[in-house]
Amino acid sequence: MEPNVVQQFSLFELNQLIRQQLSTLFPTSIWVRAEISELRENATGHCYLEFIEKDKATDRIVAKMKATIWASTYKLLKAYFESVIGESLKPGFTVLTSCNVEFHEVYGISLIINDIDPSFTLGELAAQRLQWLQQLEAEGMLNMNKQLTLSLLPQRIAVISSATAAGYGDFIDQLHHNRYGYQFYVQLFPAVMQGDQTEQSIIQALDLIFEKLDQFDVVVILRGGGAVADLSSFDRYALAVHCAQFPLPVLTGIGHFRDNTLIDHVAYSSLKTPTAVAEFLIDQVRHAHEMLEERIIMIRQMVDFQFNNKQLAIQRLLRLFPSVLVGKTELQKNALVHRLSLLRYASMQLISNHQQRLNQHQTNIQYFSKQQLHRCRNDVQWREDKLKYINPLSILQHGYCMVFSDQKRITSSTEVKKGDALEIGFYDGVVSTEVT
């Protein structure tokens, strides 16, 4: 049958027709909501993106389209977006953009972006953070670090920060020049505190501290100083999990006054600024110092009271026993009391140390079991994916088939002859045929 000549189009003519129809359908710009899956800036300043949309139930991609922001527009939109969000456009962000639908005869359909609504992305990030908070609470990790016991004298401090951060300098200055003259031991574990590498960098620092766990009383995460930017880096689920399960109390001083980030919620204590963290630690030591002074006063009062009573007892004993016997008895009694005090102190210290170690082991078990479970889940997922690839049904879905003769699988044409009855297995059924 010959095709109708009137209905024939060249490819260029067809694309021109599609272009005209799209221009008619979308004569002005429209607002499009999508997730950024790819983003690339070229040397001329243009920004090329790929938008996707996923099914919420299955997380499967259901739509995909390319988008472009020309250099003159991108320079303005980038600065505007960063001033509101505190972070630049990047894959993973869901955005609401004003764009024109364009179709090119060679390059196909694409979106030309001319405006963006950063408040929409801010709402999406807040919704994601709330979802992660609810997940942490459901998994029992939201208050896990808060349940740890802070050392009575938290003077050995592991700090995670940038060595050049102004907040870190303020923290050190406040700590080492405190008005009480208390001494603190501080070790810095350098980390990137803004940008895409923040999450992984802080997790690596936590792992290094974990290897020297017995050398520290507390972990401090500091940022602070300058404009508030890149705070979304601290709203990451994996980072929050590591902080929540860490076996030492974690203090945060990220230096912001808006809503708390995700790691602020799971930390043992969240302070607004690095200097506030330093004051918190100084106050802890001062409180312990005051308690010690109160105990010393109480002991002195008890000693004075016992000494006065002892003088009366000695006077009575002198009337009944020789002075030599009384002296020996008194010395033996004092020695016995001293040994009893040492025994009580040593036993209390031993019990306390074992209790702390027990708590630490329990926390370590929880920390490592979560990591091991995560690795096992990844391994199971990898094996499941591998099985899908080697599953015969998966292969048949791609258009291949299997041939059988007398229930024996045929793998070569030399195994059959004319007149043989064959069964051909497809993905959705079996067809019988005969070799001709």
Give the gist of this structure.
By secondary structure, this protein is an alpha/beta fold.
Overview of the structural elements:
This protein is an alpha/beta fold and 436 residues long. It folds into four domains: 108 residues, Nucleic acid-binding proteins (OB fold (Dihydrolipoamide Acetyltransferase, E2P), Beta Barrel), CATH 2.40.50; 146 residues, Rossmann fold; 99 residues; 40 residues, no CATH class. Helices cover 48% and strands 21% of the residues. The protein contains ten helices and 14 strands. The relative contact order is 0.07. About 2% of the residues have low confidence.
Element order, helices and strands?
A: HEEEHEEHEHEHEHEHEHHHEEEE
> Helicity, in percent?
40-55%
Overall shape: it is: flat
Provide a count of the helices: 10
Judged by helices, strands and strand pairing, the structural class is: alpha/beta
Please report which band the strand proportion falls in: under 5%, 5-15%, 15-25%, 25-35%, 35-45% or over 45%: 15-25%
How many whole angstroms does the radius of gyration measure? 36 Å
Strand order within the widest beta sheet = 1-2-3-5-4
CATH-assigned fold name of the largest domain: Rossmann fold
Which regions contain 5 or more consecutive residues with pLDDT less than 50? 320-328
Number of domains: 4
CATH C-level class of the largest domain = Alpha Beta
CATH architecture annotation of the largest domain: 3-Layer(aba) Sandwich
Major beta-sheet overview: 5 strands, mixed, barrel
The count of β-strands is: 14
CATH superfamily of the largest domain: Response regulator
